[in-house]
Amino acid sequence: MTITGHPNGRRLSPKTDYGYELQLAKSFIEEHLNHVGIGQALAFINTWLSNDTNPLSHLESKRLSSNGVTALEVLIESTAVFLMARLQPNLIPTSETLTLAIANGVLHLTPLESYYTWSNGIKSKVYYRVSGKTRRAIGKVLTDNLRLLHVNISSTIEGQLQAKEEFKLNYLKPFH
């Protein structure tokens, strides 16, 4: 298994892999900001971003926080990845890959730190890699604390999508 969350070893892209789910999650969460579960999740994420004490993940949570990543952005991103796993189960086949995919999505809300190197006279930018242990730690914190909310939101969105599809199918029913 890879540390990216994708079965083929590449990072899931918010544009190509779960752009639709990201749009659904964003509109749903922004519409229901006054829901008590979303409020609790945002409070938890704010606490995690500012006071993470896990030795494996505290540097990355501080990096996210210092670069202006908000709790709402983290919640939307993690919900979108979870929703993608429910709508496209072939992309995220196990809970371990889901944990890594959520962590990877959240970690890429802000650019990773980088440095320049020279190779054969060509200057290239190299990004620091976040270790698999750190990804697992971040993914575990987020999935352990947000799973019930993710299930609730994704079930509701799936129900809405199914209702829309049934509405469309009613137009195709033959007349008697």
Poorly predicted regions are none
User: What is the H/E string?
Assistant: HHHHHEEH
How many domains, as an integer?
1
The helix fraction, in percent, is 55-70%
| Beta-strand proportion | 5-15%
Shape: globular
Radius of gyration, whole Å: 19 Å
What is the tally of beta strands?
2
Q: Output the number of helix runs.
A: 6
Average pLDDT number: 88
Cα-to-Cα separation, first versus last residue? 55 Å
Strand order of the largest sheet: 1-2
Fold blueprint:
Blueprint: H1 19-31, H2 36-51, H3 58-66, H4 71-87, H5 95-107, E1 114-119, E2 122-127, H6 132-170
Helix pairs in contact: 1-4, 2-3, 2-4, 2-6, 4-5, 4-6, 5-6
Textual characterization of the structure:
The protein has 176 residues and is mainly α. The chain has one domain. It has six helices and two strands; from the N terminus they run H-H-H-H-H-E-E-H. A two-stranded antiparallel sheet has the order 1-2. A hairpin with a 2-residue loop joins strand 1 (114-119) and strand 2 (122-127). The longest helix is centred in the last third of the chain and has 39 residues, at 132-170. The chain is globular. 32% of the residues are buried.
